[in-house]
Amino acid sequence: MSHSNGRILLHTNWATHRREPPLTVDVEPLVQKAIRRQCAVHTIPLLAVGVADDHVHVLIELPAQMSIATALRLIKGGSSGAIAEALERRGLWQRGYYARGVSEASVKAVLEYVLNQRANHASKRTIDAKER
């Protein structure tokens, strides 16, 4: 049993290579499934995943002994193969990511924001700091 614990909620997003828009509505279930699978395999609690045409938002609970870089390497790297194969392309994700801690008080708002990516972008209700 680990002696390290805590609850670190993290809102992350990353973009497709060159911000190309291959993540259509038809592909969205595949993207969500691939990310959910990687989170499950690596024991990273996933609270939400939202997909837009050229990027993905994820709300996770970061395991106490895992760095942000490691968690995102595992999620991005593991999901890229399955998605890229289905899209018949290579190099799905851009390098880098956005990551920000989420307070317990703002979890509901961030969860709603992540889950409603397509609607947020369609109505231009995005938050610039979260869309980098």
List keywords for this structure.
alpha+beta, 4 strands, Alpha-Beta Plaits, 37% helix
Can you describe this structure?
The chain is an alpha+beta fold and 132 residues long. It contains four helices and four strands, in the order βαββαβαα. It has helices at residues 28-41, 68-87, 107-115, 117-122; strands spanning 8-15, 46-52, 55-62, 98-102. Strands 2-3-1-4 form a four-stranded antiparallel β-sheet, with helices on both faces. Strand 2 (46-52) and strand 3 (55-62) form a beta hairpin. Helix 1 (28-41) crosses helix 2 (68-87). The N and C termini lie far apart (38 Å).
The tally of helices reads 4
Query: How many structural domains in the coordinates?
Result: 1
Order of helices and strands: EHEEHEHH
Structural class: alpha+beta
Quote the average pLDDT. 90
CATH class: Alpha Beta
Question: What is the percent of helical residues?
Answer: 25-40%
Q: Strands of the biggest beta sheet: in what spatial order? A: 2-3-1-4
Tell me the strand percentage band. Answer: 15-25%
Rg value: 14 Å
Uncertain stretches of 5 or more adjacent residues: none
Write down the CATH topology: Alpha-Beta Plaits
CATH architecture: 2-Layer Sandwich
Major beta sheet, specifics?
4 strands, antiparallel
